Amino acid sequence: MKTTRHLTLLACSLMLFACQQITADSASSPVASARPGNAFITLGTAGGPEGEASRSQPANALLVGDDVYLVDAGDGAVGQLKKAGLRLPQVKGLFISHNHFDHTGGVLAILGLRMQLHAYNTLTIYGPPGTKAFIEGLLAGMEPARKAAYGMPGQEWKANVEVKELTHGSVVELNGVKVTAAENSHFKIPENSNLEEKAKSLAFRFDLEDRSIAFTGDTGPSDAVAKLARGADLLISEMMDIPAVMESIRKVNPNMPQRQLDGIEWHFRAHHLLPSQVGELAANAGVNKVVVTHMVPDISTEAMVKHYQSEIGKLFDGEIVIANDLDRF
Fold this sequence. Notes:
Blueprint: H1 2-25, H2 30-33, E1 39-44, E2 59-64, E3 67-73, H3 77-83, E4 91-95, H4 101-104, H5 107-116, E5 123-127, H6 131-141, H7 143-149, E6 161-165, E7 171-174, E8 177-183, E9 202-208, E10 212-215, H8 223-229, E11 234-240, H9 242-252, H10 258-271, H11 275-285, E12 289-296, H12 302-313, E13 319-322, E14 327-328
Parallel strand pairs: 3-4, 4-5, 5-6, 10-11, 11-12, 12-13
Antiparallel strand pairs: 1-2, 1-14, 2-3, 7-8, 8-9, 9-10
């Protein structure tokens, strides 16, 4: 019995040592040592909340030299990061645009894998008010797994996570990049409703040494986002074909009351961007190029790509790209 226990402890120790070596050696691995340069990678381009077979949930990676920052982390973000040739211990920060599950479903996996790989570098998580409570809840929920896996003396694990909540106008200075946040209209409430706004949603602008990138997050029409994106080289924008989505909802729910349908459509139109509104935003902001992500419905054919490029192009004469998972810009 004692021999079995000793062998089990030895096996666990060897496994943990191996994980530590993998993490320590990552700085000298081909992927980690190759200087990736500045890039924005659309890790996941599906619009939520329901998953798509051909697209991963919303997530992006911003590469600034050797540093990697995630921008939203929907379900599957860790796997998509690996497909992009990047490892989680390389990630220095995570920017969360808003706390909807299709944008945050992968955060638990990020924290858990950091634990398993013994990532000792600090992960800074930036997000709107409420982000700190969200992360604290995840860490509390991880406690049983932490104790089960790392309960041996000398194998203590700490989260090494720092949370910084941002509001409209917040500026973050990183190594080689300035990040500016603006509150968008994704949680806009009906006028004269007397309802209290319960959450905030953010758009981000990343000013790098060589170019500027504006990221809308989930938003409806917003003067604040247009101002944030003004003159940017690249606009990463969400998009929803609301008439097509409403038609689908009516087919699936033929007996849904009209009042409920009207409420759903108001929500979509207030909180998301039609293709024409993407073009209008890009034109008003004077950006050079638009990359469409977080698209609903799924754009799965070349004919659909051309259709939406044409709709956006009626108001914007710059380059228009309908992104796929793992595209690099």
